[in-house]
Specification:
The chain is mainly β. The chain contains two helices and 37 strands. 9% of the residues lie in helices and 59% in strands. The chain has a 19-stranded mixed sheet. It has an 18-stranded mixed sheet.
Length: 439
């Protein structure tokens, strides 16, 4: 427990230091005008910013399938797939400055270079030189043939992509990414500091990657091959997601939630957050690890379960197959199990299992906590139960070996069968008969 408090204190100190540094940096950027658009309305440091704009429009005819590459240091991109063989480009250049004489100059010095090379169209925004303290951004609204391959890279801006039937590679250093209605193409969407959200993704067996260093990740209504969703500091939310390949989810500081879906092998890692699965079918092994958070599995079927938790509880409802569950500080509860092989261990917490058990062998162990096992009345097993400080309560008829002891029970239940070893250093042990839940 003392170790847990020390780790938590260190994490809090680190987060406070990061907040102070970010505040200092933000104050510097605003005072210097590096982000003058922040002061266009109600800025305490600069009330006199002037916004000047230039709008342009271009149409490019291409042979399909085409490819579009965009590089833009400051500005947003909104892209939509449509019918036809034309790429329509509308963009607005905006400058924020408190010097009206410089506004037009910097608009003209900021270049939008559009080049067509065969089936590839490249858009490159080149900012004006020596423009520190003056903000110029270029926002794009683009329509492309629906089968156009898209590669967009932004330094500071949001990406909004809709209705495309081709590969999409999207990146923003400081901005959110939104993708909807993507078909028939690989999706790779990464943001260093922003939310990444994807919905209505139908790309067959092709891989899907969503990533953010500082931002939440959402994947809603998706059907793909391999799924990789990871954030260093954000929550992961998956709903109605189907994956024909393996799925990997990870977050250093954030919870992970997956509801209504199916996948192959499943792996989830959260350093500081809960991991929750509801109504998912996993065709391979399931592996979950968290350092500070709870693990909750409700109707999450898998071939096997490997659940590791350093500081938190583990709860599993309706599992089928072998279960390995370990917790340093937290209880373990597995209910409505079907033919499960059990390896349940916690250093500090109770253990509860209800359901039928498999061929085994089985082990349930805790240093500080009670153990409850509920099995069908006709269960056949060789029981070895021991507690250093506590009682053993057994509802089954048992054929014992050796001298009866209050804190040790060894024998055969219903003629014997699979090996069940139950041990607690400080707590009671109880075995009872139950009725199996109909699934």
């Amino acid at each position: 427990m003392q170790q847990k408090k020390v780790v938590a204190t260190i994490l809090i100190v680190i987060m406070v230091i990061l907040c102070v540094l970010m505040s200092i940096a933000g104050l510097f950027f605003v005072r210097t005008g590096f982000f003058p658009f922040l002061s266009s309305k109600g800025n305490l440091f600069n009330q006199s910013n002037i916004v000047t704009t230039i709008e342009e429009h271009e149409i490019i005819t291409v042979e399909t399938p085409a490819r579009l590459v965009i590089e833009n240091p400051f500005g947003n991109v909104k892209l939509t797939g449509t019918t036809g063989n034309q790429i329509t480009i509308d963009f607005v250049k905006r400058v924020w400055t408190n010097n009206p004489d410089k506004a037009q100059e910097y608009l003209e010095k900021t270049k939008v270079i559009i080049v067509q090379e065969g089936q590839t169209v490249k858009i490159n925004v080149i900012p004006a030189e020596n423009s520190f303290g003056i903000m110029v951004n270029v926002d794009f609204v683009i329509s492309v043939p629906v089968d156009t391959v898209v590669n967009i890279s932004l330094n500071n801006g949001d990406i909004n992509l809709n209705h495309l039937e081709a590969e999409a590679i999207l990146h923003s250093d400081f901005g959110d990414i939104y993708v909807s209605d993507l078909q028939n193409g690989e999706l790779n969407a990464t943001s260093r500091n922003g939310t990444v959200s994807a919905s209505q993704i139908r790309i067959g067996n092709l891989p899907l990657l969503l990533s953010s260093d500082f931002g939440d990740l959402q994947l809603i209504e998706s059907d793909s091959g391999q799924v990789d969703v990871r954030s260093k500091n954000g929550e992961l939310t998956l709903e109605n997601v189907k994956s024909s390949g393996p799925m990997s989810l990870s977050s250093d500081f954030g919870s992970i939630s997956f509801a209504e879906g199916r996948t192959g092998a499943f792996n989830a890692l959260s350093r500081n957050g809960d991991v929750t699965l509801n109504s998912v079918a996993i065709g391979g092994p399931l592996s979950i690890e968290t350092d500070f958070g709870d693990i909750n599995l409700n109707n999450a079927g898998a071939r096997s379960y490997d659940l590791q938790n350093k500081n938190g509880t583990i709860f599993v409802d309706s599992p089928i197959g072998p279960i390995v569950a370990n917790s340093n500080f937290g209880s373990i509860e597995v209910i409505n199990g079907q033919l499960c092989d059990l390896m349940l261990t916690t250093q500090n917490g109770d253990i509860k299992y209800t359901g039928s058990i498999g061929a085994g062998p089985h082990s349930l162990s805790t240093n500080f906590g009670d153990i409850f096992i509920g099995l069908p009345a006709d269960s056949s097993l060789d029981l070895e139960a021991e507690t250093a400080f506590g009682n053993i309560d057994n509802a089954f008829e048992i054929t014992t070996r050796g001298k009866l002891q209050e804190n040790h029970l060894s024998g055969k239940i219903n003629g014997g069968g699979t090996s069940v070893n139950v041990k607690t250093s400080n707590g009671t042990i109880k075995l009872d008969s139950i009725q199996i839940k109909e699934l």
